[in-house]
Amino acid sequence: MSFQDILSLLRISLHAMVPLALTAVGEIVGETAGLFNIGLEGILLLSAFGGALAAEFGGPVVGLLVGMGVGGLVSLVFAVINTYWKGTQMVTGIGINLFAMGFVAFGLIQLGAPGFHDVPKAVELTKLRTPMGLMSPMILIALILPFVIYWFLKRTRAGLMLKAAGEMPEAADVAGININAIRILAAVSGGILAGLGGAYMSVAWLGVVTKQLSAGRGFIALACVVFSGLNPLLALLGAFIFGFFQALAEWVKTLPSKPIPGEFVSMLPYIITLLVVSGAIGRVRFPKALGEPYKRE
Amino acid sequence: MSPNESSEQSRLLRGAHRTLTGLHPALESLLAALVGLLVGAILMYIYGFDPWKAYMGLVKGAFGGSYEIASSLARATPLILTALTFSICLRAGMFNIGAEGQMYMGGIASVVVACFALPTGLHQIAGLLFAAFAGAVWSLVPAFLKLTRGVHEVISTIMFNWIARWLALYLAIYVIVDPMRPEKTLSIPMSARFPVLVRGTDLSYTIFVAIAFALVIYFILWHTAIGYEVRAAGLNPTAARYGGIRNKRTMFLSFVLGGVAAGLAGATIVMGLPPTYAIYGGGGLPQLMNLGFDGMAVAMVGRNHPIGILAAAVFFGGLNAGGRVMQFYGSNPVPLEMVRVVMGAIVLVMSIPELIRLFPMIKKQGGRLIERLRRITRRTERGESA
């Protein structure tokens, strides 16, 4: 393994980290306020699809923005069902995932080639030339954003309000905070971040939309959240670890000697996720009202 | 009015009243299904299809004749079992998303019986047992991780789905592969196949396996002590623990039963779906893919009740079978994927509790009717006591 190999491995890891980090940080915002969205997988798929289509109309930036919009919109539906209508959050998330699987596959067929859509090179987000090779500028955003969110959650009044809505909605309600509104706001901003991650996959990274584009990343991001105990900085670390193992799997697959069958290499990120999560649990603590709809007495 | 007569009348009315209120769950499922179909129709309209024609094709393809009905029932068979996986665990208070992976392992395990020579009858049973065992083993690991390490079952089962997918692909492509046709696994021998129930269709006797298992689950959950403990633990784990119920045991049991159901679902595909009686590794397990996820939609619409699931599975089996017809229907070929959009929308709607209450009109009218019935009941009761 030469120095060049290590460098390219690191580069791929950073690229693979971006959607995980953005999605995980978005989910942390939502979970802090008490909404547990397992529809991340679906949001990633839908926003990757929407972002790719929009990019072909208006360029990469429009693509990313539309991806964010799609993520926000899906989260809005999720949040309204689970605040005002007191839904079951798990089931809503499952519904979003099913819907996204069908919708994207359906949309891809309507675009021509079934199950597959290339994003033209011309509308992909330009990569920056760095000493490490071509890097997407989104990596920078994914590296900075967790710090911003960390500061927001720990040090601002609004962040505290989110926490109150997730920990003890009764007390927050008495203090004059509109629980449902603040939860919706948190979930929608989280969804916007996940949408950015989804659009990044199609517009700025892989340059393709398939019906299995998300490949469990939404759930791996969820695992990052669990591992981090709602700390955005730890979630970033987790996203990097998982990104690294995805990159490693891709790298092993390209080796000419084929030391391990490709199927087993593909399992690696999922096995690592399980190992990390089962090692991390026990010391983490989640908001008390996570997953519970708030009902006034 | 003689007292005897009035008490008879009051009992009848009370029965009607109970039926109306008891209908709520079924009504809500129906409403969700309608909303789902409506979402599908809107989407088809946007993409320039004729929704009416498409649904006509779908209904004809699903229930238009005996062949179509048999085909719908064949599609419903694995869905009954994967829906049970989700429901059993939900009744115990957990979200087991792992039916997909457990079903892969069950399917692969039932191919293994192709290696033995056993007499008919015994061979089928061996296949089912193998599949059930594989599914149970695959669901035991997430259960174990949850009990010992506190890993949330949603995350562990999803990760196990992906691991199962790659493992099944590996086994299907390299290990139990048909040497003559490398795109598929070994076909199981004649002696292990379930005979076809309706000649010329792909409906086989496996549907009785699914129905029997649903009835067994119904019996266990509602007519045995351990089933009562499972449901109590699901409704309120703290109260159940105070009541002396060992939550860990109920958790374990529900996971194992769920794994058995999912494993059997894989077996019904391999052992009871003509013409191949094998798994295609080539196209990425096309026969098995997504049956586990569709099962969750079936479970929700079936209200997580074995009997409700039987009805819901026929509905979704019809959607799948009809969808196949819909995609070749005349000038209006709507892709099969539409069906999954409809399913997703249905599950989304089903996540709203007391759905009926979202529609004040329905509530008002229904409430008025129930109120009137109640008043009559009360009046006759008063007559009774007088």
Question: Which tags fit this structure?
Answer:
heterodimer; A: about 300 residues; mainly alpha; two-stranded antiparallel sheet; 10 helices; 4 strands; about 5% strand; globular; B: about 375 residues; 15 helices; about 0% strand
Structure, described:
The complex is a heterodimer of chains A (297) and B (386). Chain A has 297 residues and is mainly alpha-helical. Chain A contains 10 helices and 4 strands. Chain B has 386 residues and is mostly helical. Chain B has 15 helices and no strands. The model of chain B has no long low-confidence stretch (mean pLDDT 83). Chains A and B meet through helix 2, helix 3, helix 8 and helix 10 of A and helix 7, helix 12 and helix 14 of B.
* Protein chain pair with the most extensive contact, residues per chain: A-B, 48 and 50 residues
Strand content of chain B: under 5%
Largest sheet descriptor of chain A? 2 strands, antiparallel
Strand element count of chain B: 0
Question: What's the short version?
Answer:
The complex is a heterodimer of chains A (297) and B (386). Chain A contains 10 helices and 4 strands. Chain A is mostly helical and 297 residues long.
SSE layout and pairing:
The complex is a heterodimer of chains A (297) and B (386).
Chain A: H1 3-32, H2 40-83, H3 89-110, E1 116-118, E2 128-130, E3 133-135, H4 138-155, H5 157-167, H6 169-174, H7 179-205, E4 208-210, H8 217-228, H9 232-254, H10 262-280
Antiparallel strand pairs in A: 1-4, 2-3
Chain B: H1 3-22, H2 24-46, H3 51-63, H4 66-91, H5 99-112, H6 122-149, H7 153-175, H8 206-223, H9 225-235, H10 237-242, H11 247-272, H12 291-301, H13 306-326, H14 338-350, H15 360-385
Helix pairs in contact in B: 1-15, 2-14, 3-4, 3-13, 4-8, 4-11, 4-12, 4-13, 5-6, 5-7, 5-11, 5-12, 6-7, 6-11, 8-9, 8-11, 8-13, 9-11, 12-13, 12-14
